Structure formats: structure tokens, C-alpha cells
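hey can u check if this looks right to u? its 215 residues, i copy pasted from the old doc so theres a chance i mangled smth
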Amino acid sequence: MTGKMHGGGEGKTSQHRDLYRKVLLRRNLLRGLGEGAAYVPFIGDGDIAVQVYIDREIFGADLDGARVKVAAGRISAEQGPDSPSILRVSDCDTWPFADMKVGPLAVGDFDSYSYPYDSFRAAWAGGDWAKRCVLFFTDAQRMAIYRAGRWRWPEGSEGQGDTRGEKEAAGGLYFARHVLPWFAAYVKPYRVVRKLGYSSGSTRLVYWGALIERT
């Protein structure tokens, strides 16, 4: 589960598990957020983008060209013929818009299913981020910890646990002890204003987001 999975990673016919919960998480954190573009890697068929970000300029990407075409058509249909949004076929673990100025970005939606942090780190370095922005992540590394005993920490290093005790030690407080402290330090001089999230029972996937503000 530590390899690259694109387009949401949950299969062509069912990109999202409990899409309504993903949408609700996003709408709750986006309340009161100001203007700014949305960066949506792993955009897939555009299911989240057309429900949540259609009033914003959308910069999206996915490895699957057919799905990018579907998403572009759906976004264009909603935003009209003068849609400012740009979608590209690209490896989302890199920054797809290095050849142009993108931003200010108010939203980054890293719905990668498996490992969102390569994509986030590339975008954080490459994009022009607004003073106040919201970031979303879909993280399956707890599932990798318990099922395979092989995972990646958010900064990119690899973890390994072969015994039950090692897996429990890594997975039990994975989010609180590892992800959140790393994230808070990584985004400085931004500070975390608000965070929300939930986990998906049997799969142990973590869906979370944070409103951050530059101090």
C-alpha cells in the first residue's frame, strides 16, 4: 500500500468510499474561507471538484487521461465556456504546473487514497498559497501499518514493523503523534487554526483537513 495510486486510487468504477462524508468534511472546513483557487490532484472524474469547488478556479491533475477528460467536461459544463480552470494529465506526486504561475491557492485537496504527502510537499513548494487556506488529505498508511507492516511517514521516510507490538506502536497514535506534529511544523509560518477528520473503521483510512493561516 505504499506505492503510487492515482485518480483517488479506489478503482475506476468507484473512486470514492462514502463520497457524502468527504464532501461534508470539505464543506465544514471551507465555511468562511475567502477567495482563491483550488488545487485538486488525483482529480479522477471530478466528483469532489464539481460538488465543492465549482465556484473557484480549479487546477487539477491525474495520471489517467480519460478521467481528466471526463472531469474537464463536467467542470466546463458547470462553469461555462469561459471556465478559468485548467486540468492536466500528470504524475500528481510532482507539481504539474511548474511552467506557469498558479495561485493564490486557497485550497489543496490531496485525495490520493494511499499516500498524499509527496503530492502535498511538491505543491506546497511549487504553488502560490493564500494567507488563509484549507488542505485536505486521504491517508491509508494506518492500513499499511496493520496489514503489511510497511508504510511511509509523512516526511517520506519508510517505516517497518514485523510484530504485532511494533504495528500497534506505530498505528495506534499514528495521526496524533506523527502526522499532526509533522504537518504543524512543515507549514510554518502558517499556524493550524482548525482541523477536522474521521477514520473509516475496517480500512483504517484517515480522512482529514486543516484550516491554516499565515502569521
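The longest strand covers residues 129-139.
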